[in-house]
Write a structure and sequence with these properties.
This protein has one domain (2-472): Glycosyltransferase. Helices cover 47% and strands 12% of the residues. It contains 16 helices and 17 strands. The protein has a 3-stranded antiparallel β-sheet. α5 (91-109) packs antiparallel against α6, α6 (112-125) packs across α8 and α12 packs antiparallel against α13. It starts with a helix and ends in a 9-residue tail after the last strand.
Length: 475
């Protein structure tokens, strides 16, 4: 599907070009103001997040130029990774965007200097693991090594944050032949799995975990049980680490925890919204336990179908595999309707489902260019070859183009309220729009040999890491 693929590539070229012109080196572009913004502490988020997307799309001149900029002595980024800048950064965001982005750029290009930068940033983040439990704090100062938790969680760390690091850190250890990185995150996994086995996961359903963790006592500290913002990527990394780290310690524990979590999700979080009378097709969603979330789903949870597709490969039984793919289709159907039901064709960030009236109402009507739905459509297309997923993705891309694009700068911005047309923009081009949303939209229109899923694993920021020493495939 070369025509559609090329249109997505043109969008990437334009969006990255606007960033390069108006915000180079900053975290993100404000497309209307035509300036940079540094919401992540000035870690060059968009630049690093874009590297592998540029490479995959064959935009090599832009890729090479971006690498030269990052490697330049005295660049703001080099100062940051070498600990010369007094700055607090999010351990999670820096891990998935910067460490993940640099590792992917290295795996795609073989550039040794990039690996060195990756190791430097990991060394800065390592100080966050210096807690009584060894589970990292949420923030760390890259110069002083002082680390701390979030005020609104009363200092607790978040499951999705500390639970989404092993893929990057184990890959870094494999590439540098230095086991120290992997040891940090493996300890975190052992802590979590041990609490789970002993029934101390903070959740009433086996296989699920509460979102908050006290790093001082080493215990879960309540908080919602969710596949939305605070829990999502922990569950995703259970299957991704198992699939892609061939030398994974306790590999079968990772797989068992994933399958237990999926069973827990099915029994406690999965809800049916409606059934199509004509086709008998189900529309399902994943709702959190606790808080005001019942009957609702965040757009973030639309990653679940993609995760289930990965889990279907080498599932414990053929029945489990079929069930995973079926649930994936049922949730994806709902996610697509979250787009098609809005006047601008874009999903709200958080919605409530009414099974009686079969309607969707918006809890938070903004759309910030999130990737999860097109990500799941990509995995479903790769699994089934059903053209419906390409058709749906293309429709979403067309809606994005008409609502996001800022012609004056060439940047693309999010939408403040999807229920209003014409849409008003938020003047922020998310770095994950270039890292994830455009990458998955591009890949859905390629053949399956491009970034083949038996050779590459995408981290939760869509950075592809080469599968290391893959276990002998069981099937």
């Amino acid at each position: 599907d070369a025509g559609r693929r090329d249109e997505v590539k043109a969008a990437m070229r334009e969006a990255f070009g606007a960033y390069r012109t108006h915000a180079l080196g900053h975290d993100e572009l404000a497309p209307r103001a035509r300036t940079g913004r540094d919401d992540f502490g000035g870690i060059g988020a968009t630049l690093i997040d874009s590297l592998d997307t540029l490479h995959i799309m064959g935009l090599r001149a832009e890729f090479d130029e971006a690498l030269r900029y990052l490697k330049k002595p005295g660049s703001a980024f080099r100062d940051l990774v070498q600990g010369e800048t007094d700055r607090d950064v999010s351990v999670f965001e820096t891990n998935i965007r910067v460490l993940g982005g640099l590792l992917a750029a290295h795996d795609l290009s073989g550039d040794a200097d990039v690996l060195e930068l990756a190791e430097s940033i990991a060394a800065r983040l390592s100080a966050a693991f210096d807690t009584p439990s060894g589970v990292p704090h949420s923030f760390v100062n890259v110069k002083t090594g002082n680390s701390f938790g979030l005020p609104w969680t009363k200092g607790a760390s978040i499951l999705a944050d500390f639970g989404s690091m092993h893929l990057e850190w184990a890959t870094l250890s494999a590439r540098t032949k230095n086991p120290v990185y992997e040891a940090h995150t493996n300890h975190v996994f052992e802590t979590v799995s041990s609490l789970g086995r002993r029934g101390k996961s903070g959740a009433s359903t086996k296989g699920l975990f509460s979102a908050h963790f006290n790093v001082d006592t080493g215990e879960f500290a309540g908080g919602d049980v969710t596949f939305g913002a605070l829990g999502d990527s922990f569950y995703e990394y259970l299957i991704k680490c198992w699939r892609s780290l061939g030398d994974l310690k306790d590999a079968e524990t990772w797989r068992e925890m994933f399958d237990e979590a999926m069973l827990g999700m099915k029994t406690s979080l999965l809800r049916d919204w409606k059934t199509d009378e004509a086709t008998g097709e189900k529309y399902s969603y994943v709702s959190p336990i606790g808080g005001s979330g019942a009957g609702s789903m965040e757009h973030l949870a639309c990653f679940v179908p993609g995760m289930l597709v990965l889990g279907a490969a080498e599932a414990p039984t053929p029945t489990t595999a079929d069930e995973y793919v079926q649930i994936a289709k049922d949730i994806a159907r709902t996610c697509v309707e979250m787009y098609s039901s809005q006047p601008c064709g874009l999903s709200a960030d958080h919605v409530r489902f009414d099974s009686g009236s079969k309607t969707i109402s918006n809890i938070n009507g903004k759309n910030i260019q999130r990737p999860e739905t097109v990500e799941s459509l990509f995995y479903l297309y790769r699994k089934t070859g059903d053209e419906i997923y390409r058709t749906q993705a293309w429709k979403i891309f067309q809606s994005m183009k008409s609502a996001y694009r800022v012609p004056e700068s060439g940047g693309w911005q999010g939408v403040l309220d999807v229920s209003k047309t014409p849409t008003a923009g938020d003047d922020k081009m998310q770095s994950f729009f270039l890292a994830e949303t455009l990458k998955y939209l591009y890949l859905i229109f390629t053949d399956s040999d491009t970034m083949h899923l038996d050779e590459w694993v995408f981290n939760t920021e869509a950075h592809p890491l080469r599968i290391t020493k893959a276990r002998e495939r069981l099937n």
